[in-house]
């Protein structure tokens, strides 16, 4: 991409968005644009409406838990995960009864703990882990999903930018410096089908093994080697390029990127009309693996 090309695009008021080959958003080159100011004002206005935020967040969390359950069932039918499934079902039943975001986050947290307990039963002994660990990840499995979540998060930031919303103004996640909370909101329903499933399959297929990770003796942090990182990034790129039936009630198969755009288009309509129930439902219960 040459400088004259960039200048010409800016003269035409065309944004240039920069991505890596695996969909990792890097940033954009653009001229000042106020044409979407009303949309941004509406987005901010909706975040000041507790009822709207809670209703939209319930929809996101419910689907996240349902997709997590679907993934577990896709990888096992054993009794080892039965207790985790029961806990997740219990949490799901209480999601809609939540009276505040704090309550909702509590139920989501209980479901997440049970989910990662179940995932621990789905991996070989050498990849065994004790729950979710972040900043730093303390085992190879958590290191892999953390890397995957980072790729997914940055990809979604880019998609949000394409739809002229602010990635740092969310509804479920609370404001935090440097945290693209809207991206975190949207990625909740995608974690299981895009990242967790991919990591489980990389392990099952022997693409990566524990020798591809190193441990920091001072902090206990476990990180993937450069080769393993490339394998994970490549698997992520392949996964989002495949098609699956992502949208509830829609039999058509889409790539992740196309389905994400549909999700964001529906979010724009939700923000404009104020009806959270109209958010596109990302449903993998009929096709968890996207195969």
Automatic annotation (TrEMBL):
Organism name: Mycobacterium tuberculosis
Sorted UniProt keywords: Antiviral defense, DNA-binding, Endonuclease, Hydrolase, Magnesium, Manganese, Metal-binding, Nuclease
Domain of life according to the entry: Bacteria
Binding partners and assembly: Homodimer, forms a heterotetramer with a Cas2 homodimer.
Protein name: CRISPR-associated metal-dependent deoxyribonuclease Cas1
GO biological process: defense response to virus; maintenance of CRISPR repeat elements
Pfam families hit by this protein: Cas_Cas1 (PF01867)
GO molecular function, one term: endonuclease activity
Record bears the keyword Metal-binding: yes
Keyword Membrane carried by entry: no
